[in-house]
Amino acid sequence: MALPPDRPDFTDLATPSDHKALKRLADMDSSTSTATSTTGDAASSLRSPTRAVVGALLVPGAPSLFRRTALSAALILLGFVIPVATVVVALVRRNEITSLALDKNFLLAAQTIAVLFVLTRLVSVTEVIRSRAEGSPRRMASSLAIIGVILLAVPAVWSVARARDLSGVISDVFVSSGSDEPLAYGTSDGASTDDDFQTILLLGGDEGPGRWALRTDTMILVTIHEESGRIAMISIPRNMNKMQFPPGSAMANEFPKGFPDLANAIYPYVFSHEDIAATYVRGDLQPEAIALASGISYSMNITIDDYVLVNMQGFLEIIDALGGVTLTLDEKLPMPGNIPGAKTQYPPFIGPGEVTMDGTTALGFARSRSADSDYGRMGRQRQLLTAIASQVEGSDILLRFPNLAEIMRWTVRTSLSAGEFSSLVDRLRSGASIKESVGLIPPLINPGNPNFADISNLINALQASIRDNVDFPYA
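-> structure tokens emitted (475 positions)
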């Protein structure tokens, strides 16, 4: 049937074999699809490199894990797993932070980890940017990568610098004799009479930064029972007379009847006599400390394994760095005159009751003789050491260690190794390990004319009491 003249003929469009019609439809679909794809790629290209850079900064290697598996695994291990594990170990062992911070191997490992922390992120962001899709924007991702690496590098560089400084402090403070032998034996034949004890001589004097020709007004023997860890402290009066020295030693030849001055003058005497000091040289140790240790050891028949020497003006800096110390005083204590360079003025009195002390006040508490005597001062020094040991937490040391380390550089010298020193600090910090505290003072001992055999017997009895964990009657 013929169509009316005014009706158009659409049969060509309905015929599949008409190539022109199919081409027009295909062109329309292609145009729509291309427009959608272009919009999606543009949005993806804006997001993908930036997100990948952020991922590379947080977990290096993660964005390229399925693209470059071996490289990514190495970056994740070195730049994320190991640093996180190190932080976890430090937090778990925060009460042993002294041991970690004074371990040169740990410090070297920390420096290496800090460098790898930055390098792995640098490698990872570089790989991400170079692997971006063709035509995707580079500027935003590159800028973010540069800023992110710099921000992460700053604390890493600071950590490396602090670790290197601390390694220098360790070298300065922990001087070596080059031998594992004790500093001085209690008998002239070199036989040890107390093998189950470690004894350390703590020395302190009122000297300032870097000056070591001091009078040792503080002398305390810290004797530790190795098996149980129990500790006793024995104060030696600064005015102890007639200190004896091992036969054949330079000081024994100089003073065959005993040192004619007070015990606190031995250190400066040896310091000012180079010929005598030369005979006491042992590695990098202070010969003056060796001479004093030999006199105490021989006179009191006790083996001294090591010494710790502290400039007492620096001691107040250590207490300040630790945040102070609190003691409970039974009575009012008159304070001494201020030392040169004191940070605060002493009040006329402190106590009675609970007193929170900064370093300056604590040093005044340890130095005051106005209320009693040298012997009372010795007791306060032991009280102060015990309080510091019991109140300092591992977290305090962790937070304040950079300042502590710098103070120790000019305040402390010791023949202990870094490991032995940290072990001593941990033992003292437990507080409960300090079982007994005694002073070699009247009526037990007459420092002006001491009977050294009685002193030896007293020390032997004290060591027996901490070995057997019983009360010492004269403490």
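The two ends are 133 Å apart (CA to CA).
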